[in-house]
Design brief:
The chain is an alpha+beta fold. It is built from six helices and six strands.
């Protein structure tokens, strides 16, 4: 059985999407990782449900990875945050392979339950190697979502222009007009 992913904002790179399993809706914080069913929904969204089980151990590992990634993004250069991400990465490794198509890589885990968490942490390393200055937290004060800025000039501020960008612009408009109408 596949689980429905109820989040309003999906499609970011794996590491950032793991962070976005926490979000706010109508002023209340929601957590997709509040149960194994939520983890199964996240795994399904990322086409990993056939490779990994959504059990309690995998759920705790995913939560630990989410905490570590939030620390790393929130405190770049922090030795403690780097250690936390390193602790997640210690649960797996990459084995180089040669396939009929050429060189390849295969992830290996001592405990398969750490597979999704490790994969998200590895994706964060990929983002750091390719676009570290494009990893963002939404500028809307009520939003807690993360995104990869893919705009041409790298100045995107909101996770979604339709939601958070529009809300910020409406608030500025209201603030300007409120002072001119009095």
């Amino acid at each position: 059985m596949t689980e429905f992913d109820p989040r309003p904002f999906v499609g970011e790179p794996l590491a950032l999407d793991l962070l976005n399993t926490l979000w706010k809706e109508e002023g209340r914080q929601k957590d997709l990782l509040d149960s194994p069913a939520g983890l199964r929904a996240w795994l399904t969204t990322h086409h990993m449900a056939d490779r990994f089980r959504a059990d309690r151990e995998a759920l705790e590992a995913a939560r630990a990875a989410r905490t570590a990634l939030a620390a790393a993004i929130g405190h770049p250069g922090s030795a403690d945050a780097a250690r936390q991400v390193g602790d997640i990465l210690a649960h797996g490794r990459v084995r180089l392979t040669l396939t009929t198509q050429g060189p390849g890589e295969e992830a290996e885990f001592a405990r398969p339950a750490w597979g999704p968490a490790w994969t998200a942490a590895r994706d964060y390393l990929r983002l750091l190697a390719t676009a570290p200055d494009r990893i963002r937290v939404c500028a809307q004060p009520d939003c807690i979502r993360y995104f990869l800025d893919t705009s041409r000039n790298g100045t995107r501020r909101w996770c979604s222009m339709a939601e958070c960008g529009n809300r910020a612009k409406a608030a500025r408009h209201y603030s300007r007009n409120r002072h001119t109408c009095v």
